[in-house]
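2024-03-11 09:14:02 DEBUG pipeline.ingest accepted 1 chain
2024-03-11 09:14:02 DEBUG pipeline.ingest length=398
2024-03-11 09:14:03 DEBUG pipeline.predict start
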Amino acid sequence: MNPNLGRLQPYPFEKLAALMRDIEPPAEIPAIALSIGEPKHATPSFIANALVAHVHQLSNYPSTRGLPELRQAIADWLGHRFKLGASGIDPQTQVLPVNGTREALFAFAQAVIDPREDALVLMPNPFYQIYEGAALLAGAKTYLMPCSQDTQWLPDLAQVPEAVWERCQLIYICSPGNPTGAVMDQGQLMQLIELAQKYDFIIASDECYAELYLDEASPPPGLLQAAAALGLDDYRRCVCFHSLSKRSNAPGLRSGFVAGDAQVIEPFFRYRTYHGCAMPLQHQQASLLAWQDEAHVIENRRLYREKFAAVLAILDGVLELSRPRAGFYLWPRTPIADTDFARRLLAEQNLRVLPGSFLSRAGEQDDPGLNHIRIALVPPLDDCIDAAQRIRAVCERL
């Protein structure tokens, strides 16, 4: 067996199941799950219709590189969304469809890491656990960049020692952040790109929440946008990851893409030809239409704004929290230990949330996820309001 498998920690939802194993929630109160970031808004009907219309293509093998029309639609969307200018992005060499960002974020480390003893992969803390597992199974060590209220829930790049940058082969960033909703501004992204050029490492920018911003006038910037602003039309050492799961409420479609530096995309493509992970043709046809339509995404953002406004009004004064810039999570500080608070919510209110300490690690400083919970505002509005009222009731009894 791969000895690095023993380095993996249980996944957050395994920890959650173990934490709640002895609790019998009140059967008379309907269960509400705010623990998993699985979108519950309706998937646009045109996506389902496209799947049905192209189901006959089940008899054909898909290619790893994907349909030229899909790559063109992605390139057009990237150029418009992130203002990439006249040079834009080349759909032939700088775009690659993938089966969702989770699969791609994991596979990417396996392709780009040179498993030397001193290889480092940097990532925020708290973080999406795929980053950690990908790094460890690629034979690297991890370096966690604490993201706390003091740093506005973003990595403080200035606090990373030069010796760490010198060993860095890959850095994962997540903007907008999971679980905090924090957004790196263009200046911070440009600073990171300049570090990547100086120390020769690759940036993997997880941007799967980038289309769920709460201010229509202020979309989060992206890594390629910052590279273009620096004049790096080849997006050197920069790769971004996008998905239709959150943007289009289609997590079951398992559709996303990677885009950026052609000198990185090409060897990643070669890796994927062996990996056997080409996106089914009917999924590609549905994805093409999804990347070409913005109306459903605008409506999606409206629904989330409605839920944030209602829930924040109910929780005002009982939990320490703020409105994030993007995403669909709330990240409040808990009045008691996060695991105890999560247990009380289930035991008293049949409500599931995820303890923040399940999404972080204790580093040299305090554990930045400790005494927080992640609340995913994915259920319908009425359920989110009901859940917020239940949380408030528990807080008022403490």
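2024-03-11 09:14:41 DEBUG pipeline.report The domain at 3-42+296-397 is CATH 3.90.1150.10 (Aspartate Aminotransferase, domain 1).
2024-03-11 09:14:41 DEBUG pipeline.predict end
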